[in-house]
Design goal:
The chain is 42% helix and 21% strand. The chain has a 5-stranded parallel sheet, covered by helices on one side. Strands 3-4 form a two-stranded antiparallel ribbon. The chain has one domain: P-loop containing nucleotide triphosphate hydrolases (Rossmann fold). By secondary structure, it is an alpha/beta fold. A hairpin with a 4-residue loop joins β3 and β4.
Amino acid sequence: MLIIGIAGGTGSGKTTVVRKLKNHFKNEDFVVVPQDSYYKDSSFMTPEQKAANNFDHPNSVDFDLLISDIKKLKSGQSVEQPVYSYITCSRSTTETVHVEPATIIIVEGILIFTNEELRNMFDILIYVDADADDRLGRVIQRDIEERGKTVQQVLKRYQETVKPMHLQFIEPSKRYADIIVPQGGHNTVAISILIATIEKALLTKGE
């Protein structure tokens, strides 16, 4: 089993990197555990509090549950991954995603390198880097299409939380990375190096 952490700023292209890895390793057991599923439940908050919720601060993530689930997968146990909605800012009380242990486990999220215990569980740490302007463009498109936000709401959140939290927590966590992938999944050379690194690690683990 190989546990890989993929971090990077919001809109950096982490999902594209994960998709390209999954396409390449399609013959392997491959599972993705997104940090986004482990945000703390905010259903008890008022609409105003929900609107001000800071998803870019480490305190917003239920790291205890995420670490517990990764430990279970590592030991060969299946887990029930939470389902979190950005629209309602709540964790489903009736729905989960059943996840079985796999040969390759990808843990993906903006804040996963900020937690030392979780970070130490990764065999390979990957940081997906991108220019701030590129990330902002992707954030605007995603939040409008997937989360029902207006351009004004996205820009306000970017200035008040996304940008300062990126500079305070996410960007500094890049120093823990074994591999940095500039410009996300569009960097074919970096993706090739990443694939070769994973293939070598799988062979080493199998010896």
